[in-house]
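Re: beginner question about structure tokens

> Can someone show what the tokenized structure looks like for a real chain? I only ever see the sequence side.

Sure, here's an example I had lying around. Input first:
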Amino acid sequence: MDRPNHITPAGYAVLRREYEQLFAIERPKLVETISWAAGNGDRSENGDYIYGRKRLREIDRRLGWLSRRMKAAKVVDPAAAPDRSRIFFGATARIVDEDDHERELTLVGDDEADAGKGLVGWNAPLARALRGAAVGDVRRVTLPAGEREYEVLSVSYPDP
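And the corresponding structure tokens:
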């Protein structure tokens, strides 16, 4: 990875829980099922064996990805932000576009992004445009739907 994987403590905990769930619970159960299915004879038409091996490959790929993401993770606690008047990692901002549509969004790690919940990935175009902005600043961002201007109405951070 050429850049650090910024992530909030809560986001890191989610990655860790998924890794532990797959590694300690799902994978051992699946290995047991595959062993049982392999002992039943002909593997070429054994659905439990074939599906089990396929699922095991999926789990191992996901475990590898999670492991790499956690290794590259740089946990940043937004509550410890030194400058709380500007938008940086972990900030929650209310913005308004030129059509007077207000949105509230929080800048989080790329692995935590969920647009439906207002969580915008740190490296998303909107997040990059808003970085360092203060209340009253207007920022122009190029989105897939075209260029938009956003004005920052408020900036807040979690309490320490």
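Each token stands for a local structural state, so reading them left to right follows the chain. The beta strands are 5-7, 73-75, 92-97, 102-108, 119-121, 138-143, 146-156.
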